[in-house]
Design goal:
About 40% of the residues lie in helices and about 20% in strands. With about 300 residues, the chain is of the alpha/beta class.
Amino acid sequence: MLNSHVSDGTPDVSTVWLRVFLEVARHGSFTVAARTLGWTQSAVSRQVASLEGALGGGPLFDRLPRGVRLTEAGRTLVPHAETVTQALHDAGRELSALRDVAGGRLRFGAFATADAALVPHALAVFRARHPRVRLFREEGLTPALLDRLDAGHLDLAVVSPTGRAPLESYELHHLLDEPLYVAVPASHPLATRGGPVRLGQLADADWISGSSRPESTLLDAALRQGFRPRIAHVVREWTAKQGYVAAGLGVTLVPALAAESVRPDIALLPVPDEDAPARAVYAAAARGRSLPPAAEAFLTALREATAHIPA
């Protein structure tokens, strides 16, 4: 390495020189330092001489008949050399922990129904395997989660194309295609008959939805079947929607991700694919941005968790 300084006056110093310097300072001997490092004494002398040259040419050690002794310059350098070598050691350890998913952080988001079963199952698996990773979780609608991805606040987001969210510009990892169900009171005539139900059979029903505009919800499927559902109640939270259905105040669409947590006084009737094609669910990442190892590991856990979702 050339003896030089960068433009701000910082010396261009090899970390190997610093490590050798500290070994000599610790043992007070080129010979003992060489033996500890597994080098020759002449190689140790050359490293120290290179360091002295890079720092201006002054001696760091007084050469004595028996061993060496730090000069004032050498004593001044010792704490700085220790700081640099310790910082590099710490950096290496942290980078290794990231690669092994033994540390670091995971920042992810998910839409509400994914939080009903898919995400909890994945988190349980991930936490058991990687207990030291710090978790930062957000819940939101797909467009908001995509904005958080764009801004660099999330590593990964569980999203769906509901509401016609623009997913084309993201790196998408397909997790599952979830069918839709119609939730009706357990006493409803359709519930007692059982079997799939066509959405058109419920064209005159009162509907419970998370929005007054079906275009932005699962009820967009009804529009594609040629009728505009009559939204009697706007209820955003899934548990509350179930309460309204159980009380006979209307029916609602339930995605498979939320089916596991449906209460017993509600019946779920499958909707045929020709009425409402299964909704794709993805783990989305920002295109062109490397996925951190913890996010890769969580993606694996998400894929495993899909086994818990009703077909």
